[in-house]
Amino acid sequence: MRKPMQPIWEPWVGSAVLPAALIVGDRVVDRMLTRTGGMFGLWFPGIGKAVMVADPTLVREICRAPADVVDSAGANRVQEPVIGPQGLGSLEGADHRRLRAVMAPAVRDRALPRLRTATEELAEQVVGQCPVGTPFSLRPLLHQAMMRAVLEITMSVERSRQNVWLRAIQQLFLLADSYEITIRYALRHAGALALWPSYHRAKDVCDRLILDEISQRRRRGDEGDDLLGMLLRARDERGARLTDGVIRDQVMSMIAGARTTTSNGLAWAFERVVRHPDALSRLSDESDKGSEDVYASAVLYEALRVRPPVAFFGRRVRRPFDLGGRRLAPNTTIIIHLRSLHHDPGLYPDPAAFRPDRWLDRRPAGYGWMPFGGGSHTCLGDRLAIMQMKTFLQVFTRSLALSPADRRDEPVRWKAISNSPGADCRVVARHR
Ligand code: HEM
């Protein structure tokens, strides 16, 4: 387990870690968490007091705390300009549970076999786009494919119209991912978010596309059987339907949730496995047989462990909360640092090594493997994302022999809360 050396609690000391991480890399945060026994205090401009946590026991306490003591919505306020005030991440309690229950059937359980067939076709198309024999960046192709997938799953957007949607979404997220939004969020009380014309223009274009789709379906009297259809058919206990605003916020929540996560997770899985020839050959052998997915699952779980595509997720203290011998005051933000949590040597011997074999006789469980978060706000797209990533790994390794364009590991590129391979997963593909 971690060996605490010197408890560091002064927020100004902790705050120095983040600028340092931007300059010398995220490992500085890992080191700080190791020195402090898995938790230290810091201060964020515009957010205020925060604690960074990466100890599985503490993370368990955080995720199991009742929502009136520690909530998720408070920490997600920073996403509100995109997902809206009524998006899943912005809600708690009964409203949150009800909307999750409405949306889950579109991306979980019985929907998965049908979506798997569509994912296989998509993966084969992407294989067809890969240049053969020359180095290329795989991540942009994966990103484009996953964006098309989420548009089809949420709103059945036809292929011919997807580019219009992709342009609108890209425009909005260029602003949402920028450092400018952090500064504007910090200055929000001075009107910095309300007075931001380029953001409002980009948001209006996205909103118009979604609201037009809603009104067309209502006019046709045919809601459809995708996620939007489920939201349009939903009724509350009094028989009232969801407002267009609530539906818009859920569609944006799904797009925001899926936008870079799955493609970055998959790009990391390829980045890791092509640098481990034994693992790659076992994965290819299993994909050729096509009868099971034990090794593909192990590769994926291990890639999500060593390179979680979402760097951290947050919670906000609402009532005094005792954690690790400290009393956290209301409004303290809790940041759960996933890469560091996943590198706990007590849970994973030689934690930096990429070893899919760790997962051959066990499945991820507990609070030491959390790429999809935990508790009542666990990622709604987790099973869909696992299915998509596994299917892509299988289809690719069945069709292509992949090797890294450069033997050195790609550095971690850290943007907003996401992690991606610093060279965009540069590989060379050959037909098998
Ligand atoms: C590898 C892929 C993905 C990763 C690593 C990931 C990770 C996460 C994480 C860390 C959270 C926050 C959980 C928490 O606060 O406890 C989250 C929430 C969420 N994700 Fe994902 N995600 C992925 C893919 C997707 C996809 C494909 C979708 C939709 C199709 C999606 C939709 C959502 C939604 C709607 C939420 C908010 C859930 C709520 O607040 O109840 N995610 N995701």
From TrEMBL:
<keyword id="KW-0503">Monooxygenase</keyword>
<dbReference type="InterPro" id="IPR036396">
    <property type="entry name" value="Cyt_P450_sf"/>
</dbReference>
<dbReference type="InterPro" id="IPR001128">
    <property type="entry name" value="Cyt_P450"/>
</dbReference>
<dbReference type="InterPro" id="IPR002401">
    <property type="entry name" value="Cyt_P450_E_grp-I"/>
</dbReference>
<keyword id="KW-0408">Iron</keyword>
<comment type="similarity">
    <text>Belongs to the cytochrome P450 family.</text>
</comment>
<dbReference type="Pfam" id="PF00067">
    <property type="entry name" value="p450"/>
</dbReference>
<keyword id="KW-0479">Metal-binding</keyword>
<dbReference type="InterPro" id="IPR050121">
    <property type="entry name" value="Cytochrome_P450_monoxygenase"/>
</dbReference>
<keyword id="KW-0349">Heme</keyword>
<protein>
    <submittedName>
        <fullName>Cytochrome P450</fullName>
    </submittedName>
</protein>
<keyword id="KW-0560">Oxidoreductase</keyword>
<dbReference type="InterPro" id="IPR017972">
    <property type="entry name" value="Cyt_P450_CS"/>
</dbReference>
